[in-house]
Write a structure and sequence with these properties.
With 115 residues, the chain is mainly β. Helices cover 0% and strands 45% of the residues. The protein is built from no helices and eleven strands. The strands form three sheets. The chain has a six-stranded antiparallel sheet with strand order 5-6-10-9-8-7, with no helix packed on it. A three-stranded antiparallel sheet has the order 4-3-11, with no helix packed on it. It is globular and about 45 Å long. The structure holds zinc ion.
């Protein structure tokens, strides 16, 4: 992915995190921690008539320790111990995932915009 140094300040998000589709605010500045780690996330659009889910490996994430840190976030379906995060306003995504066991949430830098 592109150089993220302009987005990260002292390990946290220096800018507001917003939905790419409707501009809804997801996170305030300095509320999440940057993590570089490869993890699969389902693609926003899935081919019709296919049983399995198409995923892509993304490697840059905003880690949110507490759900209440989010300004706006919605959940889609759960898969095992994972819930997928979608925009609370337009319900598009997934923009990230939530681990039910650790209660941490991971927002993909590639699926949101920064302003
Ligand atoms: Zn939205």
């Amino acid at each position: 992915m592109a150089d993220v140094s302009s987005l990260v300040s002292e390990g946290q998000n220096s800018l507001m995190v917003k939905c790419v589709h409707c501009d809804s605010r997801v996170l305030s500045p300095q509320s999440a921690t940057f993590l570089s780690s490869s993890h699969p996330l389902p693609k926003p659009t899935q081919p019709k008539g296919q049983a399995s889910t198409n995923t892509e490996d993304l490697s840059e994430w905003w880690v949110v320790d507490d759900m209440f840190t989010f300004d706006n976030i919605g959940f889609s379906h759960s898969v095992g111990t994972t819930k997928y995060l979608v925009c609370a306003d337009c319900e598009r995504g997934p923009v990230g995932w939530h681990d039910n066991t650790t209660r941490k949430s991971y927002v993909a830098l590639a699926r949101v915009k920064h302003a």
